[in-house]
Design brief:
single chain; about 25% helix; 3 helices; two-stranded antiparallel ribbon
Length: about 110
């Protein structure tokens, strides 16, 4: 049995797979780009969760997040999840615009 069974949805050829496997750089648009982030695999969290499962998972976070970025799903569904995070958890949450960049600091 493979050591990393939680990677079943991180298919070979995707950018996520080499990141969790420890890549120090990735090829993006023909350029090698260094990985400047700490990459953490969250095996209990799936991008296939629904809004209720996502909220339940977030409730388990030890400290409230300074900002939660909802970047998955159709715009209306993402906005609804953003609002549920704000109302249900009292956390700041946003749905960034396409091509929007944010500097994330520890």
């Amino acid at each position: 049995m493979p050591r990393r069974t939680e990677l079943m949805f991180l298919a070979l050829g995707t950018r996520a797979r080499p990141l969790v496997d420890g890549a120090t750089s990735l090829e993006i648009h023909g350029d090698r780009v260094p990985v400047g982030a700490e990459v953490v695999n969250l095996p209990g969290f799936s991008v296939h969760s629904d809004a209720g499962e996502t909220i339940a998972w977030l409730r388990g976070v030890r400290r409230p997040l300074r900002m939660t970025y909802v970047v998955h799903g159709e715009p209306d569904a993402a906005a609804t999840l953003r609002d549920r995070i704000h109302r249900g958890l009292g956390w700041s949450a946003t749905t960034p615009a396409p091509e929007e960049t944010t500097l994330v600091q520890p």
